[in-house]
Write a structure and sequence with these properties.
This protein is an all-alpha fold. About 70% of the residues lie in helices and about 5% in strands.
């Protein structure tokens, strides 16, 4: 048990409402009520339904719409077929509308608002409040506040409504005037009709206005659309990113003014583009700009996985995973912190957001860490450090992983394979550090009784089924990412419905009804070759053999289980599952709906399951909005780089500035990733930096996938790097600790996340990449591949290239833990910590040290030629000798000296 029982009373678990308030405050979201809240819910559900339709049927699907036929209401399917640009436009349109609903334009606390208010007050004090000018200025201030300002984050302003209307007009234009858009893409924006040509009703009003007739409606919508994306970026992601994106647009227009003869900077000179050229490429293009590759990836992959995570969270899996972590490690030395690491890793499978993961998991884990003896700052650091790793942990990872699939043309299953070892190393490294801190301070496990691991698994084993299915679909069945997510999502909903309907009283009826539905469908196919719905509608023909019928309906078993579960919950309305604990948000929503309708719906299981589905779709949309805006805005940057031809010039500039040193290039990339990623989503950082830095890294001989993963790791690192450290700041709000100190500790706990990327780009075997046999004949981007079983069986390759580097990385993070914490078995003196640090570097990334030495020798005019693999193994061997010697010395010290505040030997 803990030796520190003097924790403050504030180490209490915070409520879900308080956790939500922390997230809303950090992300500056509105807390809406009434009609506005209903609008967010309805639009969010429609957004999710649209994405589900795309996942199920791709870009051609049917919608059953009610129509009037001879005075009777009938339902007829309306087929919708979308082009990629249209689907992307609808996707971004939903996100824009939700952004203007959920995020205020200003709360009146910005410099512009303060200056306007100060000017009005100054005029009133000089001229008097009754002066006409003072009254006019005061009226202007009130009008501006009414139109733009939302000080309490609680109301939708007229400016928000105007932005939503323009967003809708843009989407409608994409859906109804796509033939004209095709012509525009071929002949330019000037070929489009003016607004009076599109809406003839406006001819009497605007027909004589020169500006209106001079520019096409497409040009007008393009300009407004790009401005709306910039405004949405400012609201959701902050002013710095908006300025960065806007500066690239300005550069696209006036970058031609840079003289090509200027040293270094001259490489940034580009051809001259007009505004119509720029807007056409940024707004009416699926290769570049707002609707480019990042948004395409969001439409195809990212949103459906966010939705999957939302369904998993609303099903109660989040709390179950937290409890699973405590059941597995809660009673061990430093148990609460170790449980926090596991819980954050599990939650990373559900949530790709460092902030949301930190707050939702930390609301439970941080108070327990504080009670066990960890300081508030260290507790917050552990939670934020582990939570930031959710974006690099397979199988789901974060949105950037799906972008990596598209940018590198690599199957997602291979991304999972190459990302697994570094992710495990990271979480192992944090685990080592919290263990050593527990050894140092004599911290034990949790005081409270926890259920056994076996009992907990028996109660919620079904939460693991969707994750196992996802891995099967991705790796075993080799389905596409979107199809894998769709099938997994259907299976998850079917499983939750089945568990909700299952009890001792309903078991027989549930199984019988599901079997009956399956049997009727099977009989319909064997008799008429169509589903039962088609047979009842008069369709059908020759039957199919039983085996073929089973092959058709077998994959649909989830849908039949859903129908059987619904039938069971209708017949047995009072059924209560003994093992299913839906997220409290679902229960609250069901009870709230019951209060509004005057009925007791909170205990109705069918209504609760329906609420679970609807709430999951709404929360999925809310979570996805910042991600969609991020990829839409960030897509502008690679769009400008591609269209302007800046890419090769930028590569040449970076190679020249690096002086041919791979170490300098890696350090520049790391620093740029961290600086750019401060306060920005990892997705944005990844998109920007791979556009500018991925090619230079590949030019140095680094494998393409390793270069992309390197950039991703340092983008994630930015979430816990001071002075911004958004995840650490969120954790400090829960831990009630000093934000900056929490960030410093989080950064130190994540140091292995900063060294591991150097390790795997310089030793690609760590991420299971191998150079192809004919690499010299291939382009740089195609010279490496993911290893297979034959490679692993080839011991002459796998032992020196994979096994030894991987073992070295794991030992290296232990040495790094002793360096950072200052404890192994006993206290580690500063001189020994320095040697531990050296051994850590030699074990993890020896080539980083050797290349640095070669660079220094090169500056002195000395050229060295060595066998790279032999030198690498030799340096790792030196690091191992140092590590073993220091560990044995420290172990002997622990056997003769008591350490720690308890006075007991601090054996690990």
């Amino acid at each position: 048990m803990s030796t520190n029982d003097t924790q403050p009373d504030d180490a209490e678990e915070i409520s879900r409402e308080e956790a939500d308030e922390i997230i809303d405050e950090i992300e500056r979201r509105r807390s809406l009520q009434g009609l506005a809240a209903l609008a967010v819910a309805v639009i969010g559900i429609c957004f999710s339904l649209f994405q589900l339709a795309l996942a199920a049927r791709s870009f051609t699907f049917t919608i059953p719409l009610p129509t009037v036929d001879l005075g009777l209401l009938t339902v007829r399917p309306i087929q919708i077929s979308l082009q990629l640009l249209q689907a992307n436009a609808v996707h971004v349109g939903f996100a824009l509308v939700l952004t203007f609903l959920m995020f205020p334009a200003t709360m009146g606390d910005g410099p512009l608002s303060r200056r306007l208010g100060g000017a009005v007050d100054a005029a009133a004090s000089r001229l008097g409040g009754s002066n006409p000018l003072s009254r006019v200025l005061d009226g202007v201030r009130r009008a501006v506040r009414w139109a733009f300002v939302d000080p309490d984050r609680s109301r939708v302003t007229p400016f928000d409504v105007a932005c939503m209307i323009v967003s809708l007009l843009a989407v409608v234009y994409f859906l109804t005037e796509f033939r004209e858009i095709r012509d525009i893409r071929a002949f330019g924006l000037e070929s489009g009709r003016p607004i009076t040509g599109v809406y003839s009703v406006l001819e009497p009003l605007l027909g004589g206005v020169p500006f209106v007739s001079e520019y096409s409606y497409a040009m007008l919508l393009g300009v407004l659309g790009v401005l709306l994306v910039l405004e949405a970026t400012r609201r959701t992601l902050g002013l710095p990113l908006m300025i960065i994106v806007a500066s690239f647009i300005v550069y696209a227009r006036w970058g031609y003014l840079i003289s090509g003869n200027t040293p270094f900077v001259g490489l940034l000179a580009i051809p001259q583009f007009t505004w119509p050229d720029i807007i056409q490429n940024l707004w009416y293009n699926t290769e570049n700009g707002v609707f480019g590759i990042p948004v395409t990836v969001s439409v195809s992959f990212i949103y459906i996985f966010i939705l999957f995570g939302s369904f998993l969270e609303m099903s109660g899996a989040g709390q179950w995973f937290i409890d699973l972590a405590y059941a597995a490690t809660g009673h061990r030395k430093g148990g609460p912190a170790k449980s926090s690491i596991l819980a954050s890793g599990f939650m990373g499978t559900i949530s790709g957001s460092s902030i949301a993961n930190t707050v939702t998991t930390g609301a439970f884990t941080i108070p327990l860490m504080k009670k066990s003896g960890y300081s508030p700052e260290f507790s917050g650091a552990v939670e934020s450090s582990a939570s930031s790793g959710g974006q690099i942990l397979p199988p789901v990872m974060g949105a950037a992983a799906f972008l990596m699939v598209q940018y590198t043309a690599t199957p997602f299953r291979e991304i999972i394979i190459l990302a697994t070892i570094p992710a495990v190393v990271f979480f192992f490294g944090v685990w080592v550090m919290v263990h050593l801190k527990a050894v140092q301070q004599g911290i034990g496990g949790v005081d409270a009784d926890t259920v056994s691991l076996g009992t907990h698994l028996k109660r919620g084993w079904f939460y693991l089924v969707p994750i196992v299915l996802l891995l099967y679909y991705l790796i075993g069945a080799r389905l596409s990412v979107s199809r894998s997510a769709w099938f997994t999502l259907v299976a998850l909903v079917a499983l939750i419905a089945f568990i909700a309907a299952y009890s001792e009283q309903t078991r027989a009826f549930l199984l019988a009804s599901t079997a009956a539905i399956f049997g009727v469908e099977l009989a319909s196919y064997t008799v008429a070759g169509v589903p039962i719905t088609g047979l009842l509608a008069g369709a059908g023909g020759a039957g199919v053999p039983l085996g073929d019928a089973l092959a058709v309906i077998g994959p649909r078993i989830g849908w039949y289980a859903m129908l059987g579960s619904v039938a069971t919950m209708i017949v047995h309305a009072d059924v209560q599952s003994a093992v299913l604990d839906l997220n409290p948000t679902v229960q609250t929503a069901a009870e709230s709906a019951g209060e509004r309708t005057g009925r007791d719906l909170g205990d109705n299981q069918l209504f609760r399951v329906g609420t679970f589905v609807v709430k999951s779709m709404e929360e999925g949309a809310r979570t996805a909005v910042p991600v969609v805006i991020a990829v839409a805005a960030a897509g502008i940057i690679p769009g400008v780089i591609s269209v302007s031809g800046l890419g090769p010039n930028l590569t040449s500039l970076l190679l020249e500035l690096s002086g041919g040193s791979i170490v300098v290039m890696l350090l520049v990339t790391a620093v740029a990733s961290i600086i750019l990623g401060m306060g920005m989503p990892t997705t944005v950082t990844y998109i920007i930096l791979i556009s500018m830095l991925a090619t230079p890294l590949v030019e140095f001989g680094i494998p393409l996938l390793a270069a992309h993963l390197y950039i991703l790791y340092f983008g994630v690192m930015a979430d816990i790097t001071p002075p911004v450290a958004v995840a650490a700041y969120a954790a400090s709000g829960v831990a009630k600790s000093d934000p900056f100190e929490t960030g410093v500790k989080a950064f130190s706990l994540s140091l292995n996340k900063a060294i591991v990327p150097f390790a795997f780009v310089l030793a690609p075997g760590i991420v299971l990449l191998r150079e192809k046999a004919n690499a010299d004949e291939l382009p740089l981007r195609e010279q490496y591949r993911v290893v297979n079983f034959a490679d692993l069986a080839e011991l002459s390759y796998s032992v020196p290239e994979i096994l030894i580097p991987v073992v070295g990385v794991f030992l290296g993070v232990v040495a790094l833990g002793a360096t950072v914490i200052g404890t192994l078995y006993a206290d580690v003196p500063k001189p020994e910590r320095a040697v531990f640090a050296l051994s850590s570097l030699l074990l993890m990334a020896p080539r980083l040290l050797s290349e640095s030495v070669f660079d220094v020798l090169g500056l002195a005019g000395v050229s060295v030629s060595v066998n790279a693999l032999l030198l690498d193994l030799t340096l790792r061997g030196v690091g191992l000798v140092l590590f073993v010697a220091l560990t044995v010395r420290n172990r002997r010290k622990a056997s003769v000296e008591p350490a720690g505040p308890s006075g007991e030997p601090t054996t690990a």
